[in-house]
Design goal:
CATH superfamily: NAD(P)-binding Rossmann-like Domain
Bound molecules: NADP nicotinamide-adenine-dinucleotide phosphate
Number of strands: 9
CATH class: Alpha Beta
Strand order of the largest sheet: 3-2-1-4-5-6-8
Number of helices: 9
CATH topology: Rossmann fold
Low-confidence stretches: none
Number of domains: 1
Length: 265
């Protein structure tokens, strides 16, 4: 018998729900939850998604338009929530691809603020109440990029290393109270991520369908796994950094990313 209490899905909060992985989480959780709060900057997309999910599943879906980079945004978002959160899917994030000098500092600063600061502040903001009831939890969306330094993705990989480290530590803190913390580290997924990162792969890569990524994440969450890396190839990729000297890791990463091109805005 599992030592975990049954997961609670009553009220799920999903960030970055207007596209990609976040939207797929919203669709998957709509059949489990009583209520969803979905958030992102593009309010029209959220409204359409809310209408779709309410119509299909008969649950309440609250769209909250919010730029997590705005001053006080996380505090405002938490203040607008109706009731406590049973599951937080902390997903919103972006990357920039290319040598460090390709983008202005502001881009990297925003990336660090969204992928690290807003993510951490949001989990911090719900943590006490999540811990208060067994069966509640958090899913953090990191990346296989968080397992090793990546030349060409230097800042992004470092932000995801933070997410992974913080998530694994919190999973241990939550264990005693039956609080699940799962770190999801996908490899390439076909979403709008590449467009925002200004990158394209020269050869088609094994992009994983977004629904498979989310299904794997929820299976892992339900089983109480602290870490989910969907797909065999991705799992193997994450073992390289644990076994190889740093110089070899960096050379392999350079080689892999040399099959990608920088694309224009
Ligand atoms: N796709 C991949 O290959 C891949 C692989 C590993 C990990 N990941 C991670 O997965 C997560 C989701 O990415 P994705 O692939 O689904 O990319 P995506 O399709 O570009 O979606 C990103 C989401 O984040 C939201 N977002 C971006 N900036 C925001 C801001 N300032 N305030 C609030 N929301 C914001 C976007 O909504 P708005 O633009 O409407 O605000 C959108 O809903 C990210 O953390 C990413 O690092 C992606």
């Amino acid at each position: 018998m599992s030592r975990w209490p049954a997961p609670r899905y009553g009220h799920c909060l999903i960030t970055g729900a207007s596209a990609g992985i976040g939207r797929a989480f919203a669709r998957a959780l709509a059949s489990r939850a009583e209520r969803l709060t979905i958030t992102a900057r593009r309010g029209e997309r959220l409204a359409l998604l809310a209408e779709e999910l309410e119509g299909r599943h008969g649950i309440a879906v609250t769209p909250v338009t919010c730029d997590l980079l705005a001053t006080g945004a996380v505090r405002d978002l938490l203040g607008r929530l109706e009731g406590e959160v049973d599951l937080l899917v902390n997903n919103a994030g972006f990357g920039r691809f290319g040598p460090l000098e390709r983008f202005p500092w502001q881009d990297y600063q925003q990336m660090i603020r969204l992928n690290v600061t807003a993510m951490a502040e949001l989990t911090f903001g719900v943590w006490k109440s999540v811990r208060a009831r067994p069966g509640r939890g958090v899913i953090h969306v990191a990346s296989v990029a968080g397992f090793q330094p990546l030349p060409g993705f230097a800042v992004y990989a470092a932000t995801k290393a933070f997410v992974r480290s913080w998530s694994l530590a919190l999973s241990a803190e939550g264990r005693g109270s039956g609080t699940r913390v799962t770190c999801l580290s996908p490899g390439p997924v076909a979403t709008e991520f590449g467009e925002h990162a200004r990158m394209t792969f020269d050869n088609p890569k094994p992009f994983m369908p977004v629904d498979q990524v989310v299904a794997a994440a929820l299976r892992g969450y339900e089983a109480g796994r602290r870490e989910v890396v969907p797909g065999l190839v991705n799992k193997v990729l994450t073992w390289g950094p644990r076994l190889l000297p740093v110089g070899v890791q960096l050379a392999l990463a350079r080689r892999f990313l040399s099959t990608a091109s920088t694309s224009e805005d």
